[in-house]
Amino acid sequence: MVRKRDSLVALVAAGAFLAIAGCEEPVYPVPTESYSSIGGFEITRVGDPDPGPYSVGDAEGDPDWGFWFPYSIAVDSEGDLLVTNIRGGYLERFIPDPDGGAVWDAYWIWPRGRQEATYQLFIESYPDSTYPQGVVLVSESQSEMGLVFELGRQVHKLALPDPILDDSDDRLPRNAKITQADILTGYPTTFQPGPVVYYPPDRIVYTDVELSYLFHIEGDSVTAEGGGEGDQEGKFYRPLGICVTPDETIVVSDTYNHRLQKFTLEPAPTDPEDPDYDPLYFYPFIFRYQGTIGEFGFNNGQLSSPFGMDTDAEGNIYVCDTRNARVQKFSQDGELLAVIYGSGYWRLRCPLDLAVTEEGDLWVVDAFIWYESWEDEYVPEDQARIILFRQD
């Protein structure tokens, strides 16, 4: 039996050793803002291997109707939600309400939709009011090898065609097929194009997920290239999120390196003393590394497989911290502002992408790639949702 006195001596000695060794309990940032889940809507038809593009527009209010796999989300110029369905090849439009619900307004059928392959289908709104249904950027690549693999690698700016009601089924809203005629610009692409973002005044930036590269495109030409696979500064390992802040800083979700990286687009240096000078580099611009936000972990400010992201008018950065089942909000300098989980029925399980509205609300795609239910009464793991969050 160990006496209390001996135990106390041992405890004091251990404390003194830790103090001498400089071992301190790590201090994690405390968020200064909070957000609450307001509501949402389900968009998956549970258990149906071939559900079609049905969604919350079901006239009977049947919650089992939806589309198979929501992946990417954007807010268009009218404040409506554009959501991609990567399993069936659809783009859906929802008219949201302030309480988190939505009306299923229209859908567009992708040219190669309904094939036996899963597409990584990324969507981004584009500021052009010329066309009544709006203009979008779409990055498309298959994540499963197959006979049609070569057809599924494209980055486009396209005008959405006018949807019409061509089916008597009152579950279906207006719809249209996207054709080659709707493509305004076809951008040069590489092996597996990933998320794409508008870069003012009329350019785009996108990642190649497989090659771990970052590209800046102007017109039909690549004007900057950066990255490459690795864990060093400026390198990536499967970058699956991107945004551009109001001051034109490019922020990338370096997903499998569990961090965010910031870049500015600058003229390619010609001075050999410049650390980014490369005599073999032939593009007119470079992505100059500006810093990293986050590291691998599960505490506040740490990240585990960050996916989709967006920014607000102040330049704050919102990122889906996917494996940690939450969203985190950072200032552009990397200060942690908010850690967002949701609660109850609308608690996040596997956030894949998000969009920030002009009012500062968040719409988050909550899917089920890594979700493991820990409560029998919790939402079924194959029930994907779009959830609305609002600052308290």
Automatic annotation (TrEMBL):
<dbReference type="InterPro" id="IPR011042">
    <property type="entry name" value="6-blade_b-propeller_TolB-like"/>
</dbReference>
<feature type="repeat" description="NHL">
    <location>
        <begin position="290"/>
        <end position="333"/>
    </location>
</feature>
<dbReference type="GO" id="GO:0008270">
    <property type="term" value="F:zinc ion binding"/>
</dbReference>
<dbReference type="InterPro" id="IPR050952">
    <property type="entry name" value="TRIM-NHL_E3_ligases"/>
</dbReference>
<feature type="repeat" description="NHL">
    <location>
        <begin position="227"/>
        <end position="266"/>
    </location>
</feature>
<keyword id="KW-0677">Repeat</keyword>
<dbReference type="Pfam" id="PF01436">
    <property type="entry name" value="NHL"/>
</dbReference>
<keyword id="KW-0732">Signal</keyword>
<dbReference type="InterPro" id="IPR001258">
    <property type="entry name" value="NHL_repeat"/>
</dbReference>
<protein>
    <recommendedName>
        <fullName>SMP-30/Gluconolactonase/LRE-like region domain-containing protein</fullName>
    </recommendedName>
</protein>
<feature type="signal peptide">
    <location>
        <begin position="1"/>
        <end position="21"/>
    </location>
</feature>
